[in-house]
Write a structure and sequence with these properties.
It is found in: Nucleus. The chain is an all-alpha fold. Helices cover 51% and strands 2% of the residues. It folds into two domains: 153 residues, Methane Monooxygenase Hydroxylase, Chain G, domain 1 (Up-down Bundle); 42 residues. It has nine helices and two strands, in the order H-H-H-H-H-H-H-H-H-E-E. The chain has a two-stranded antiparallel sheet with strand order 1-2. Helix 5 packs across helix 6, helix 5 runs parallel beside helix 7 and helix 6 runs antiparallel to helix 7. The radius of gyration is 25 Å and the shape is flat.
């Protein structure tokens, strides 16, 4: 697992604690090396100015999305920054009827970086030499941290809701299980075992044996196993012209312009 940090020695706590760049650089996915660290004092101006100029971040009111910015990021950095990737994964997970693939490296990387930022901010806030203006700038970094934590929590809660809703299907369907993390799969199995035990003790033991199967499929195809509806309507937003596309689910081979 790799992160877009300009330093890799996690054990060098003294270096990170004394460098204001470390407190703000992980806010952005910067692969270029930063300007030299100051030999004395703390000056966040140079580093935050360098950060903003390097990223050239536009201010927009479109719920944080900027098509031109996203297109440029994807051309320059492949999948874009981790925050953009998390936002896209979060939106996709909330809109998709079924559970999507677990973003292991992305979530672990962001959680690690949030913890690193938290330590850096705490260190800089505790130093007497930190000015009032620098305190304000650190508050902006903390705000960005809260935004990342909100997205992480919402992403995990959305997946947890789906896992508990389709726990039985996940438990008996090997092809779905690779989409979950080991902890998610463990939770799904335990949750289904508890639900099945509750149904058995509460109702099924009092019914005839032929009516006590939780995996029964009736003659009309109706199954006792709750599954995502693959025909659920979803919204597709194309950020660029991709030309005519064939959508077989529309019942027609006529190309659709997207």
């Amino acid at each position: 697992m790799s992160f877009n940090y300009s330093f890799s020695d996690q054990s060098n706590t003294a270096t990170r604690a004394s460098a204001p760049w470390s407190a703000v650089q992980s806010r952005y996915d910067l692969s270029p090396s930063p300007p030299p660290l100051p030999t004395s004092g703390i000056d966040l101006d140079d580093y935050m100015d360098y950060d903003d100029k390097k990223q050239d971040i536009p201010i927009n009111m479109n719920n944080g999305f900027n098509d031109e910015e996203d297109d440029n990021d994807e051309r320059e950095m492949g999948e874009g920054s981790d925050m953009k990737r998390l936002m896209k994964a979060w939106v996709a997970e909330r809109c998709a009827p079924g559970i999507l693939k677990w973003e292991d490296d992305l979530v672990d990387g962001l959680m690690w970086r949030v913890e690193q930022q938290k330590e850096m901010v705490s260190t800089l806030l505790s130093e007497d030499s930190t000015s009032e203006e620098e305190h304000f700038k650190l508050m902006l970094v903390q705000t960005e941290m809260e935004r990342a934590k909100f997205l992480l929590r919402s992403y995990l809660r959305t997946r947890l809701s789906k896992i508990e809703k389709y726990a039985q299907m996940i438990t008996i369907t090997p092809t779905v299980q690779p989409l979950l993390s080991p902890l998610e799969l463990k939770h799904a199995r335990k949750f289904y075992a508890l639900v099945a035990s509750h149904f058995k003790l509460s109702v099924l033991d009092s019914l005839p044996d032929r009516m006590g199967d939780l995996e029964e499929v009736q003659s009309d195809g109706l199954s006792m196993v709750a599954k995502p509806n693959p025909t659920t309507a979803v919204f597709i937003y194309c950020r660029r012209d991709i030309g005519p596309q064939r959508l077989p689910s529309f019942g027609s081979d006529k190309p659709v312009s997207l």
